[in-house]
Specification:
It is built from 8 helices and 12 strands. It is about 25% helix and about 25% strand. Strand 7, helix 6 and strand 8 form a beta-alpha-beta unit. The strands form 3 sheets. Strands 6-7-8-3-9-10 form a 6-stranded mixed sheet.
Length: about 270
């Protein structure tokens, strides 16, 4: 599959401000993602994580500041075409997929940035989808209707779908929402395996649970309510001091072989 990975930054955001109805949703946000980086965006509910994603996707134009994605500047590029090169896995997609759509059809639809295919896939589409389904360990789900897939199976199918356009950037927007503990463990193990694949895109994981950060994530962006608390290499950013500022309560973060463990201090 042809690569779209650029040599310049995948994302470059400079002094981003986003205001709606006189409410500052984001202010003074700077962020740069280079090829090969894997980022976590961590913050409490209401911090602006989803707002930042909507700004990246062109659904919420900035009040001021500059957004560049894959070398293109917002306001100077057809963002509808650019979205085809940004893979998105979000719980918001789940209810929009028809119950009768098969796993293969859902994956193929990602090439065309649409849901619920109404045209027949080409042999090339099928071959690409089957390759991606083998990578996401969902080959056995090709013919299974969407209604019969578990939540964890659906999330892995959506990752294969997001990669059909061979994106340079894959965004996982709270992908563990709704998963039981066992399904979450298995899904995160799959994400960790994905990050080690030689053709993996840069991945951005959006979460408010430090326990979902696997060992291969290299950088972190901490968002307080609408502003950046810290950004950079994960070992320098994920500190008790920064997390306490981010969540507004005293936090003790520990890391062991099983991953990160966050504890609220009395």
């Amino acid at each position: 599959m042809e690569s779209h990975v650029p040599q310049s930054p995948i994302i470059r955001i400079s002094d981003l401000h986003l205001t709606r109805s006189r409410n500052a949703l984001l202010r003074e946000v700077d962020w740069c993602v280079m090829p090969g980086d894997h980022w976590v965006i961590l913050g409490p509910n209401g911090a602006g994580k989803t707002t930042l994603l909507h700004a990246l996707a062109g659904y919420m134009p900035p009040t001021s500041g500059k957004i560049e994605v894959l070398g293109h500047t917002f306001g100077r590029t057809d963002w509808r075409e650019l979205r085809k090169h940004i893979g998105l896995v979000s719980a918001g997609l789940l209810p929009r997929i028809g119950d009768g759509e098969t796993g293969l059809e859902v994956v193929v639809s990602g090439k065309y940035a649409q849901l619920n295919m109404w045209t027949s896939p080409t042999p090339e589409d099928i071959a690409s989808a089957q390759y991606l389904m083998s990578q996401t360990e969902t080959q056995a789900l090709e013919a299974r209707p969407w209604r019969y897939l578990s939540q964890g199976e659906r999330q892995r199918i959506l990752i294969a779908r997001a990669r059909m356009a061979n994106p340079a950037l894959l965004i996982l927007d709270e992908p563990c929402a709704g998963l039981d503990p066992v399904a979450r463990f298995r899904f995160l193990a799959f994400v960790e395996k994905l990050l080690h694949q030689p053709d993996a895109p840069s991945v951005v994981l959006v979460t408010h649970h430090a326990e979902e950060i696997t060992s291969s994530f290299s950088h972190a962006l901490l968002l307080g309510i609408g502003h950046t608390v810290a950004s950079g290499h994960i070992g320098e950013v994920l500190t008790n001091h920064n997390l306490t500022k981010t969540f507004g309560v005293a936090i003790d973060l520990r890391k062991d072989e099983a991953g990160y463990h966050l504890r609220i201090m009395p």
